[in-house]
Amino acid sequence: LQNNLARLQDYLAPYRDGMVTNLIDGKAVPAQSGATFQTTSPVDDSVIATVARSGAEDVDAAAKAAKAAFAEWRDVPLTERKKILHRIADGIVARAEEIAFCECWDTGQALRFMSKAALRGAENFRFFADRAPSARDGQSLPSPTLMNVTTRVPIGPVGVITPWNTPFMLSTWKIAPALAAGCTVVHKPAEFSPVTARILAEIAHDAGLPPGVWNVVNGFGEDAGRALTEHPDIKAIAFVGESKTGSMIMKQGADTLKRVHFELGGKNPVVVFDDADLDRALDAAIFMIYSLNGERCTSSSRLLVQSSVAAEFKEKLIARVNNIKVGHPLDPATEVGPLIHKVHLDKVTSYFDIAKQDGATIAAGGETTGDAGCYVKPTLFTDATPTMRIAQEEIFGPVLTMIEFDTEEQALEIANGVEYGLTGYVWTNDLTRALRFTDKLEAGMIWVNSENVRHLPTPFGGVKASGIGRDGGDWSFEFYMEQKHIGFAL
Ligand code: NAD
């Protein structure tokens, strides 16, 4: 840990005297109004950096730069785009430790996960770099009188708005396909975690991406975010964040008829039937809620266990949860670090009282820990019923709600009985049941006898209040591009 802290100081040096600026048309600039805000570390509440607090005028400058750059970027040969995106991936790999350390410090996420997240960011760029040459591919659909052909063209400058959970990886996941498709980008990172977005844009600049193709505008949702969603030159908004923010963005974008792609909240069930491999199910259930501080949209925050095995499962679970190592995010042994911010800590801990008031049991955790910073003990609620708030609302922390069920029908009703539908995890050795259950489970992504394992060509996204649209593979291009039909008379 001491070694890592010393290296962190080197990585933070540029921000100590300087500022996390915007990047508009290839230039590092403060907000035009001169306004700033501070980003702090959830480890000890210390100030990391002063950040540009942008308004509508900065967004306008960035959107104009993106519009001007689009005129050329859309026609850059696809193989050249491929090369530039690979160079960005190389740049990420070269600065992976810096990215991971800054992300840990800015967000509180543990290094054991963030070092992988930085490299996953590079993989996102490589994946879409390799697909760039086929971005414009279409088909021929001849009829007796017409030679019909289809092609795809990039939609134009797009806005990308990202949240504070794994902000680096998520930004790459949205921006890489946009660039591969031929779009230009204005990125508004989350105000709680602006540092790595700036590093990423710098890497892209160093990789030879032309000025204006990728612009970063820092600031708050209600001003910079809102202005981006309302700007007439921005043709689409790729948004990752809370469901209620998605709903606001849809309203804000209505006047300019924005195309939207939403990756929103979740209250994802992990359903354990009594015929499952219970040890594997236990490992996966723990991993899917207590890794990444539980600040993860795909986390399995509801554990549904069949009553015949619930007592044994619960006993093992409690022992494991009490054993999770909470600590400094840069300590390689740490499994759970501090939550992102005091505001979020207050939200998560408010559920401890809610759980008690509603009649659930706090079987592990249920309190903050540490003298400073936003630390909370990994928490398990048991004796919960499906309608309790702890079983319905996205808490977004290392907090698991366990609910027991008797029959498959009951499990399905409970699993589907929330407003969300992002992921589901099903544990059973009965293949027919797995087929039947997954067919009826209301979720965009489901894993059977597995934790969440991302495979980039597969579709990523949610149903119900968890999202609109899909990312991954060609689905990303469908969002960032327009299909065009041309019919030639024969
Ligand atoms: P948030 O909705 O509060 O903020 C996300 C971003 O939206 C930030 O950059 C914020 O500044 C901006 N924003 C806020 N109000 C805005 C407005 N009116 N107009 C435009 N932009 C606005 O979300 P958060 O708290 O940063 O992130 C956590 C949430 O993100 C959780 O609900 C989580 O489930 C969700 N999430 C979903 C996925 C997914 O793939 N489905 C992935 C990661 C996170």
Short description:
This protein is α/β, with parallel strands linked by helices and 490 residues long.
Verbal overview:
With 490 residues, the chain is of the alpha/beta class. Helix 3 packs antiparallel against helix 5, helix 3 crosses helix 7 and helix 5 runs parallel beside helix 6. It has a seven-stranded mixed beta sheet with strand order 13-14-15-12-11-17-18, with helices on both faces. A six-stranded mixed beta sheet has the order 8-7-6-9-10-20, sandwiched between helices. The protein has a two-stranded antiparallel sheet with strand order 1-2. The protein has 16 helices and 21 strands. 42% of the residues lie in helices and 19% in strands. The model has no long low-confidence stretch (mean pLDDT 97). The structure holds nicotinamide-adenine-dinucleotide (NAD). The site of nicotinamide-adenine-dinucleotide has 33 residues, from helix 8 and helix 9.
Low-confidence stretches: none
In terms of quaternary structure, what is this? Answer: single chain
Mean pLDDT: 97
Shape: globular
| Total E-strand runs | 21
Tally of individual helices: 16
* SS content category: alpha/beta
Q: What Rg do the Cα atoms give?
A: 23 Å
